[in-house]
From TrEMBL:
One of its GO terms (biological process) is zinc ion transport. This is Cation diffusion facilitator family transporter. Keywords: Membrane, Transmembrane, Transmembrane helix, Transport. InterPro entries: Cation_efflux, Cation_efflux_CTD, Cation_efflux_CTD_sf, Cation_efflux_TM, Cation_efflux_TMD_sf, SLC30A9. The keyword Translocase does not apply. It comes from Sphingomonas kyeonggiensis. Residues 16-222 form the Cation efflux protein transmembrane domain. GO terms for cellular component: membrane. It is a multi-pass membrane protein. Residues 229-304 form the Cation efflux protein cytoplasmic domain. Belongs to the cation diffusion facilitator (CDF) transporter (TC 2.A.4) family. It is found in: Membrane. The chain crosses the membrane at residues 13-32, 81-102, 118-138, 164-185, 197-215.
Length: 316
C-alpha cells in the first residue's frame, strides 16, 4: 500500500524543517553580508545555501530509492539514497568548507572597512532561533529511533542517513553562528576586520570536520553494511529451533535500503530429509522469517553440510 501524503510528510519532517529554515536564513544572511561587508556573514550565507541544496538532494535520493525492483536492479534502488548522502558530504566539504576558507583568507589578505554590525546581530539571532528549532526537531526524531543505544553508537548503527545528516548539519550550523557572532563582535571591539576573516576559516574547519565524518558513515552504507546484530541473532535463533536443521553455518545480511535487508543463510539439514520436503521446509522458514522480521525483503537459504561450509570459509 502506498504511503499517504500525510505519512510521507511525517517521515520527512526533519528534512522539511531544515530545508525551510536554511532557505530563509540563507537569504537573510546574504542581505546582511551585502549591507555590512562581513566575511563571516557571507560565509554563513553560503553555508545555509549549501545546506538547503543538501536537503533537496536527500529528498531526491529518497524519491529515487523508492522505485520498485526491475530486471536491471532486482534488489531495488534503495541504496541510491546512500549515494546522494555521500554527495551531500562532498558538497559540504567542497562548497561549504572550501568557500568558507577562501572567503576568510581573502578578507585577511585584503580587509574591508568595518560597517555597522547591527544587521549582522539581528540576522544571527533570527538564524539561531530557526536553526535551533530545526536542530531540536532533528534531535527529537533521532532520539525516538535510537532506542536504548548511546548517541554515537546509534549514529554508527543507523542505516538511514537522512536523520543523522540533518542532525550534524544543524549542529555545525549552530556552531558556525556562534563563531560568526564572535567574529563580528571581536572585529568591531578591536577594530580589526581580519578577525572576521579568521572566523570564516574556523567555520570552514568545522564544516570540513563534519563533512569527513558524514562521508565516512555514508561510504560504509554505500559499500554495504550488515543488519542490526539483534536481527541476525533472531534469524539464527529461529532457524536453530527447527528440528530438521542440525546446524546453522552462517547468516549473512546486507542492507539494500534503510528498511530493506537481504539475508543469505547456509544451514545443514538432516540427511534423511527428502528434497521435496526440504523445499517445502525452506518456503515455510522464509514465511516465518518475513513475519518475524518485516525488513527482510529477500531471503536465500542454502542447504549445505557443516564441514563443506567450514572448508569454503577457510579457502576464501
Amino acid at each position: 500500500m502506498a504511503a499517504s501524503p500525510a505519512s510521507g510528510w511525517r517521515a520527512n519532517i526533519v528534512i522539511y524543517a531544515a530545508l525551510a529554515a536554511n532557505l530563509g536564513i540563507a537569504v537573510a544572511k546574504f542581505v546582511a553580508a551585502a549591507i555590512s561587508g562581513s566575511s563571516s556573514m557571507l560565509t554563513e550565507g553560503v553555508h545555509s545555501l549549501v545546506d538547503t541544496g543538501n536537503q533537496g538532494l536527500l529528498l531526491y535520493g529518497q524519491y529515487r530509492a523508492k522505485r520498485p525492483p526491475d530486471s536491471d536492479h532486482p534488489f531495488g534502488y534503495g541504496r541510491e539514497l546512500y549515494f546522494w548522502a555521500f554527495i551531500v558530504a562532498i558538497l559540504i566539504f567542497g562548497l561549504g568548507a572550501g568557500v568558507s576558507v577562501y572567503e576568510g583568507w581573502k578578507h585577511i589578505a585584503a580587509p574591508e572597512e568595518l560597517r555597522d554590525p547591527l544587521i549582522n546581530y539581528v540576522v544571527l539571532a533570527i538564524a539561531f532561533a530557526l536553526e535551533g528549532t530545526s536542530w531540536w526537531i532533528a534531535m527529537r526524531e533521532f532520539a525516538k529511533s535510537k532506542g536504548d543505544h548511546g548517541w554515537w553508537q546509534a549514529i554508527r548503527d543507523s542505516k538511514d542517513p537522512s536523520g543523522f545528516i540533518v542532525l550534524f548539519e544543524d549542529s555545525a550550523a549552530l556552531a558556525g553562528l556562534v563563531v560568526a557572532a564572535a567574529g563580528v563582535w571581536a572585529s568591531h571591539h578591536w577594530g580589526d576586520p581580519r578577525i572576521d576573516g579568521w572566523a570564516s576559516i574556523v567555520i570552514g574547519v568545522i564544516l570540513a570536520g563534519v563533512a569527513m565524518l558524514l562521508a565516512r558513515e555514508s561510504k560504509g552504507l554505500l559499500i554495504g553494511e550488515r543488519a542490526n546484530p539483534d536481527m541476525v541473532a533472531a534469524i539464527r535463533a529461529l532457524l536453530e529451533a527447527e528440528p530438521c536443521i542440525t546446524h546453522v553455518n552462517h547468516v549473512r545480511t546486507i542492507h539494500t535500503a534503510p528498511d530493506r535487508v537481504f539475508v543469505a543463510v547456509s544451514a545443514d539439514f538432516v540427511d534423511t530429509l527428502p528434497m521435496g520436503e526440504a523445499e517445502t521446509l525452506i518456503e515455510r522458514l522464509e514465511q516465518r522469517l518475513k513475519a518475524q522480521e518485516p525488513k527482510l525483503s529477500s531471503i536465500y537459504i542454502r542447504p549445505e553440510k557443516r564441514e563443506d561450509a567450514v572448508d569454503a570459509v577457510a579457502m576464501g
